[in-house]
Amino acid sequence: MKDRPSVMDLPDLPKGELPAHLELQRTRVVCAADAPSYTESVQYSGAYMAFGVDNSLRLEDFKKSFKVEVKYINDDDMEFDMIGIDAALANAFRRILLAEVGGKFSVSHLAQILILSVVPTMAIEKVFIANNTSVIQDEVLAHRLGMIPIKADPRHFEYKADDENANEKNTIVFKLNVVCTRKGDRVNNASVKSEQLIWLPEGSEMPFDTKTKFTAFGCGQDKLPEFASSPICSQYPDITIAKLRPGQAIELECHAIKGIGKTHAKWSPVATARYRMHPEIVLTEVLEDDLAEELVAKCPAKVFDIEDLGKGRKGVKAARPRDCTLCRECVRGEDWEKRVSLRRLKEHFIFTIESTGSLPPNVLFTEAIKILIDKCQRIIAELS
């Protein structure tokens, strides 16, 4: 009996590559005028086995395809591209940076594993008010103080337990003592700003009895090498804390400790961490002259440019696809959906991190990666 040929050897089936429509479905999100399509990711390793394509995730393939390209960076924010990853991983980094969501997880869902991670910061937790004659209630004033970003590297501090004394390794102390006065037509200290928070490196200066001690600093924080050259202060000096009228005063002391965004948003190290799929714009027809000018006029994001085709003819090209906001104005109208195809790359993400100032955005991202590695190693250890 002769050996039957393998189905993979049949000439009418492609070997090692997908048909165009399946490749589009696997790698792109198609954004039509009414709704997107192909939004789900194909996770099953044998989904395309009939075409000789292995869809399984392999570490070696991931190492070859994964790239990070930084587009711009400064002290407050950064934008970079993450290429060659799934949406679950991109969302995991975002959730690591924002906060921690506790709870049990399924090992099969990587995104849920990463949600358990977090990047800590320093924020004001306790406010001891000696005098407050402003119109702001004590609770509201304490909440406003807690939301002020503190310029202090949390890696130099330890977590403080509820029953632990405040010391130089787990607590930062600030004082605020402002009195609004009038001298002729001039009013002093009408606006209380965050720059008026004074760092107390030696610890609390509040009076206390023999039973209560606010801090127990062994040495001044300004004598520690990590703070000698970079004094601790509020990240932004012009945040308005309160408005005072002549005769009103605020006298208080604040204690900042290390915490995570799961407990309260004031400990979140980022103002926002977001991502979006990289846009792809394909002109399915050749557009010239009036149609080219109409397409340029339709786009509010100015993605398209007119190009000279020679002999007085005008064409159009997608000069800045990265700026596309997916408003879909270019595919609205009669026959425009046949001329322009809006797509998103499923494995190419534009990631933006806006720091609150406690740590630079590039450091926040590297810290998130360290947390991710640590969590994965712990899970692997538990499974083994």
From TrEMBL:
Keywords, alphabetical: DNA-directed RNA polymerase, Transcription
InterPro entries (UniProt xref): DNA-dir_RNA_pol_insert, DNA-dir_RNA_pol_RpoA/D/Rpb3, RBP11-like, RNAP_Rpo3/Rpb3/RPAC1, RNAPI/III_AC40, RNApol_insert_sf, Rpo3/RPB3_RNA_Pol_subunit
Q: Please cite one Gene Ontology biological process associated with this protein.
A: DNA-templated transcription
| Pfam families documented for this protein | RNA_pol_A_bac, RNA_pol_L
Q: Name one GO cellular component term.
A: RNA polymerase I complex
Question: What is a single molecular function from GO for this protein?
Answer: protein dimerization activity
SUPFAM superfamilies found in the cross-reference section: Insert subdomain of RNA polymerase alpha subunit, RBP11-like subunits of RNA polymerase
Q: Which residues form the DNA-directed RNA polymerase RpoA/D/Rpb3-type domain?
A: 77-382
Family assignment from sequence similarity: Belongs to the archaeal Rpo3/eukaryotic RPB3 RNA polymerase subunit family.
What protein is this chain from? Answer: DNA-directed RNA polymerase RpoA/D/Rpb3-type domain-containing protein
Q: What is the lineage of its organism?
A: Eukaryota, Viridiplantae, Streptophyta, Embryophyta, Marchantiophyta
